[in-house]
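Entry 14. Structure prediction run on the chain below.
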Amino acid sequence: MLNKALISEYEARLAEADALLKEKLERVKEADPILKDKIKALKVIDDELAKKSAQLEEAEKHPEKLFNVLFEDGSVGVFPEQELQLAESIPKDQFETLTSLLSGDSGNGFDNANPYLIYPDESKKWKGMVHSHIRGKSVHLYFLLQISKDYMVGWTLYIPKGLSKDSETFAEAKALNEKEIMPIVRETMSNQLKKFNCGTKEPEPIEWATYEGTVQPGGVGATKHEHGHFIIIDSFDVQFGASKSYFHEYFCDGKIFNGRIVFRLLENKEEWKRTDEGVLTWFCFNALKSPTPYVISSRAVNKKWVPPYNNSALPRNIRSKIPGRFQYWKIKDASRRREVRDELVNEIKKKLLKK
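Output returned:
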């Protein structure tokens, strides 16, 4: 006969195990919705990864579709969205330090203001030009834009190769530049997937707008032992679009620099680095498939960005067609100016949808 005490102990243990089992079942029930949510989330991630993979495969097969495949609104060019947002993800104080180091002071009577953030009077015409600057075999471009009656703001556009030889005369330099450098320049400015690595320059006197010629060795623009040549490769009227500390937009009507030319500060990847640059670097490209000015893009609306009073950041051909009730640039109050601009963007979207 079994011991009653043992039976009681056994029954107590069964009851205890039963209670534990019920508790575990309750926990499983509680965890079930959470688990389902996690599984659902993982599926969404898997679907997104599969979608991105398919998009990239499509882009590899059809490079011309890259722009449409990878970008939501194309408002600022042809770079991956995560790179476009890189500057905005950097802490404000660090970013301001980096941009001040890259942009520098003008040193030419602009009272320490960043000359790249100047909006020239839209009612006037402003000139732009591009030099091919040759020193010996080395070549780079100077992209200069008039911002006042006396000064031009500039960018240095780096060329990934030099000339095959030094030229002593201007005619020799011009012929060699046309043969060896201009095909690179034309291809870069006519292909939305290509870009120039570039850097900022101090404002230059307006006299540079028409200067061409040769500098003897030892002179400004030459090296100690090699000639310097300045060749104008393009001249145009320029209109100023959006300007931020990390983004600048210009509308040019040149033969080569034609359309919406964008300068963008991006992460300085290892393969792009130049010896004198750090975390960020500038790039220049022609936003061929994204002609819409930044100010009337969805991105500008989402970022709540609007230009200062009396500046539309629109080219003349578009600005002249904006109905009076949507002319945001004439409104002094910044909040109201942004509201009216947003209304304009919504109106544009409605008309596009009707089409």
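The first strand starts at residue 126 and ends at 135.
Filed with the rest of this week's runs.
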